[in-house]
Amino acid sequence: MTAIISLTGVILTVMAATQGHLWSRLKQAEDKAEQVRAHSLEQDRRIGELWDKRREDAVVIRLLGDHIDTLEDHIRDRREPPPPPRPEGL
Q1: Residues 90 and 62: beta-carbon distance below 8 Å
Q2: How far apart are the first and last CA of the chain?
Q3: What is the value of pTM for the model shown?
């Protein structure tokens, strides 16, 4: 009878230790998942900022190209100086 109680005690102790270990691992996994989510959100924010800057650059490049076309037309038509002024923002 003592052996059965002792065996039951060992089994309960092992189960409690296993459960504690599993809860610890679950907490670690949740913490890691939260870190990954936070990193992903930060990357999304940074990518969004880079795309916004890229669009701004594209607008400036387009304006520069249009101004160069205007200057070339001015030269081709042999117009008198001064050339057309630069658009604002360039």
Answers
A1: no
A2: 93
A3: 0.56
